[in-house]
């Protein structure tokens, strides 16, 4: 009986030791990477049919594109490998989602973590190359105010790392396709 109790205590000690320590950082990195991976039934594919590469950028509530806005959003037209498209915070490319219908966002919860909505506090401002008459807003289910352009709700892509990145272009994710938005309010074609 003593040997059995001793073996149980050793097993519990090893189990407890395995729950903490240096391995936590790796576990957190793996968990963050999995947040950005598509869920079954919601493939994230490029046109070639390959899974989108992970850039290691976790979608977190502290990401600058997901922070609560402190003022009016500003959109500018920016030059990218796709041509001229709309850009928001820090020059980050903005996208439309083909699953959105009637000016209503179909991207919430896990989708909004991977594709943060372009939010505003106040009337969005047109920057260089942006048509003021195409700018608008909608109310999100969580109460936030999302920017629209040509009646398309707008989003960032959490895996875009810097200004000019367009890694969200033509990605299938969360039941629809994602495209960068041109200054004319249409999806970019490249």
Automatic annotation (TrEMBL):
> Segment Disordered: which positions?
32-76
Q: How far does the signal peptide extend, from start to end residue?
A: 1-22
Which UniProt keywords are given for this protein, alphabetically ordered?
A: Signal
GO BP field: alkane catabolic process
Q: Where is the composition biased (Polar residues)?
A: 60-69
Protein's name in the database: Lipoprotein
